[in-house]
Structure formats: structure tokens, C-alpha cells
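Deadline looming. Please check this record:
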Amino acid sequence: MSNEIFGNRVSRFAAWKAGLAYKLCKKFFGEQKEPLDLVAVAKGEVYKDFKVLTLVRREDLDAQKDDDGKQLKVHEIDPNNALVIGTIRMGFGHWRIAIALASVAASMNVRAYILDFLSFTNTPIARSIKFLEGLYNTFSRLSQKSKWFNNHIWEDVTSRANATLDSAIQNREISRLFMGAFKNLPKNIPLVAAHPWVGWSALHCGMTNVVSMVPDNLPLAFWLVQGSLHTVQSPSAYMGYRALLKMERGYDIKKCLPASDIIQTGHYVDYELLSSIKADCKARLDRAKRGEPRRFLLTMGGAGAQAHKFGDIARYCKEYIRQKNCALLINMGDHEGRWQVLKELLEQSMIPYTLHTDWKKTKAFAKDAETSHVTGVHIFLHKDFYAAVYCTNLLMRVCDFMVTKPSELSFYPIPKLFIQRVGRHEAWGAIRGSEIGDGTKEAEEHNMLHRILTMIIEEDDLLKMQVQNILNNDKIGIYNGGYNVVQAALRQK
């Protein structure tokens, strides 16, 4: 096993530890030795919206059925004018980034295939991802309940523990478990990886055109995949990853990431949002002029860690909601259990709400909200994973502020109020948003959050400032990252 990466040494202990992690995962979950025989089907809402084909196993007939149980036509993978978008679907962020790329690819008439590790049911690939996702979700929720755990454990795990080159070595070894997903893919088809395990696995199998999308502004070696082209969303991320900033452990770093291995693309944003920036910003200002209720979109993350925070916001805004000075649109994703927590909090505070669970009606609500008044509290909960994630994208266009932890949503062109992060790596999302002026600083404490909410509801200056900054950012291409990633993948071919 090599103990070098990007020409820099890591300790023999680090290399041994990476090998041990691989062996333990292999022992618990197994290894996908046999190649997956993948074919494509036109399946689900992601196909209806973006003509994206989903990769499934040829022998998995259940995966080849539509929502009504009808057997779908199977298509062979065609590498011409096409790319594969690979994701592990751990949390919402990786999937949202994949959707953004699919949206952009559709607008460019490029055929996109979605390869989702978690969809290969009853395989070592899916079992391992499911287990690790469960651990991540549990610890994320605990970090929001326990200040001690968050400050002394989770902040370190989500930053320093993933910062050094050791973590890239570990990902390189663990990804060997997933190689079966790529052994039969055309070696020259562009692959855009929304997670490093996807990128490493593809390179292990001899794929020649791999693009690694880096979501974090905080430089973390966790995201580095040697042999791929890395894309980052901001200048500070470019410098940090290019210089392998603070990624040493044991040995000094002698070499930087080659300039040919990294590009700054801008923010990864869907075509639908990007093409509507001017109209959506105008609508926000028009609603403010008319004195309509300030619309807040509250978004639950994939780990479901914000239920109590949302309950606190609703309780604080209760009188504003009653007087029709603000409205809350809360996307709970697919978190039925977390909705029960929030539901109890709302009922304890005697706050009425409307629950939306039908995807067609949710889309109709978002469309109608473009021209109609929105009041009260609206809860959105969808069992389908795509709907759970994409609901936020639909509601972004018709809301005035998005209230979110500084995750992948930090980079979207909507005014943002950042609440407490879930992991230290997310802090730099809020820094990016506040510096380019389309988001606030991170409001970690209740008093600070309440004060900002009052200011936003009662006055218009912060809204107007963020709207103008979004328009300025749009002019210089800050939100064009999705296009630049797709174009880079096609050029690499």
C-alpha cells in the first residue's frame, strides 16, 4: 500500500490505519467483488423533470419499475454526449448537488445518468452506506442537543479529523469496497463524483475522466481524489485546496496540488434557479413594497437535526404569523420522526399549520405562490427522497429568506439567514455567504437569532441589500458553477 499522495508522504501508521479501516468495513459489510451489470431506466420524478436516466442492476427487476409498478424499458449506457453523476446519497447535500448537475446537463442537452450507491439494495455497497449514514445522522442530532458533545467531539470530527492527508488515504482504501459499481461502465465516459468514495472507486477501475466536486469551503483532504479534476466553489477554497492548507500530519507537505488538478467553477446551482434569479429577486422586492408577509423557508437537513430549532423559531414568530407579518414554509424532507417532534412543539405553542404530503399538490402550491398571498405555517413532508430534497429548490423561488444551516445551501442565490451549523466544516459556508453578501453571519445563539428575525420581519434593508448582492453576483458568474463543472467534464473526455 502506498503511503504517498500528491507526492507527499504520510506516516506508515496512517497507511496501516487506512488499510485496517478497509478490512473492518469489509468484515462487517462485505465487498462488491462482482461487477454490477448496470443499465439505465427512465424512472421517477428526476426523469420527468430533467430527463435523467437512473442506473440500476440488470437483474433487479423491482428497480426497473415505475411508481405504478409498470416495468420500464431498459437502455444500454451510451457514452456519447453523456456523463455519469455519482453520489452516495448520505444526507441531502450530495443528492442536491447531483440534482443541480442533472438540471444543468438537461439545459445543455447532455444526457445524464444518475449512479446512486444507496440504490443498489441488498449489496455490500448499500449496506455499508446505510450503516454509515445512520451513524452520521445520530451524531449530527446529538450535536444539536449536547453542547459538550458538539464542542469537544463533533466539531473536531467534522473538521480536524478530516483535514489531513491521512483521510484521503483512508478514503482511497475504503473505496475499494465499491469498485463493482464501475467495472462494467465505459472507461471513457465522464464521471462527476459528488463524494470522494465515488471518485476513488471509479479510478480504481480504470475510468479515465473523473471530476470530483468539492462542496466545502474549509480545506479538507477528505475531498481529495488523486487522479481526478477537482472543482471548488470559491477563491478561498481554491487557495486552500491548491496549497493543501493545514493538511499535514507527521510529515511536512512538500508539494501542492497541481494546478492542472483543480479549477474554481463558482457555486453549484440548478438551471431553474439560475435562469430565474432576476424574476425571483424582483418578486421579493415587490412583495416587500406591498407589505405582504415576509416568507421564510426553513429547511431540514438530511440528518434531521433542526426540529427543536424550528420549533423555537415558530414559537418566537407566533404573533408575527397571527398578524400576517410573516409566513413559515418548513420542509421536513422525509423525516417523519422529526416531524412528530416539531408537530408536538407547534401544538404545545398552539400554532396552527397546514401539512403538505402530496408531491403534485406541493408543486402546485409552489407555482401558485408565485402570484398569490401566502400566510400561516406550511409543513412539507414527502416519503420520496427526490421530492424530499427538491421541495426546498421549488420553494426557494417563492420565498424571501431561507433559514438554513450553512451547508450546501449556503451557495444558492436566495437571501439567507444562517442558523447554527451541524459540524465545524459548515462554518465556512456561512463565511462565504456573508462575504459575498447573499447570507448573514451564523446566528448560533437564540437571542441573536430572535433579534435578526425581528429585524428582517419589521424592516426591509437587509432584504434589499442581499437581493442587490445576488444580482451583482449573478452578473459576474458566481452562481454558474454547475455549467462550468459539466463543461469541464466534457472537455476532459
Notes: The chain is about 45% helix and 15% strand. The chain has a mean pLDDT of 90.
